[in-house]
Amino acid sequence: MMMISKELLDGLNAQVGHEFGACMQYLGIAGYFKSEHLTLLADLFFEQAEEEKEHALKIVHYILDTDGKLRIPAIPEAKFDFKSAEEAVQAALNWEVEVTGQIHQLMDLAHSQHDYLSQSFLKWFVDEQLEEVTKMEQLLSVVRRAGERNLLMVEAYLAHLDSGE
Fold first, then answer.
1. Residue 55 and residue 26: Cα distance in Å, rounded?
2. Residue 144: inside a domain, yes or no?
3. Quick one: residue 147, left, alpha or beta (phi over 0 = left, psi -120 to 50 = alpha)?
4. Kind and range of the H or E element at 94?
5. What pLDDT score was predicted for residue 1?
6. For a tag on the chain, would you pick the N or C end, based on fewer CB atoms within 10 A?
7. 72 DSSP 8-state letter
């Protein structure tokens, strides 16, 4: 017996697609930065891609653990060409804001159905999205402040963050 509603199952399956879509988009952004020889920015987005894949798998396991039927939708093609670092990071921020809205809709649905199990599961994603949006807002701010001609300063900023200082 399935432990979640068909409506929530459909939403979770769609979210798996959104998370894999985010993974692909982050690979596109990582590729852009790698081609611009901005290694730390590329690495950051390769890590983000891996995180999004993990989010998708977390939802996949939840669907299967609740005896739901897994149906992953087609993933739209990611964007690989950007005019600037700012455009690439803005795309990442836009994606995170969109995903936040999707997670909130799933939480609203679980709440309206008094599905406490799914609410508990989705709370982790609600908290995670705050972290993701904040990270991209901060990065966009730093990229804007540095400007396209000073992106090595952004790399220095990221190196400083990685060193834990």
1. 13
2. yes
3. left
4. helix 85-112
5. 78
6. N
7. P
Within a domain: residue 116?
A: yes
Residue that the structure tokens 């939403």 belong to:
11
Residue 39 lies in a domain: yes
Taking 90 as the threshold, does the pLDDT of residue 114 lie above it? yes
Q: In this predicted model, what pLDDT tens digit does every residue of 10-32 receive, in sequence order?
A: 999 999 999 999 999 999 999 99
- CATH number, position 47: 1.20.1260.10
In the numeric block, the tokens 């949006």 are attached to 133
Q: Which domain holds residue 35?
A: 6-72+81-163
Percent of the chain scoring above 90 in pLDDT:
93
| pLDDT value of position 160 | 87
* Nearest-angstrom CA–CA distance, 124 and 86: 29
The string of DSSP letters for 6-18 reads HHHHHHHHHHHHH
The full DSSP string for 53-66 is HHHHHHHHHHHHHT
Q: Is residue 1 part of a domain?
A: no
Confidence of residue 161 (pLDDT cuts 50, 70, 90): confident
Q: How many domains does the chain have?
A: 1
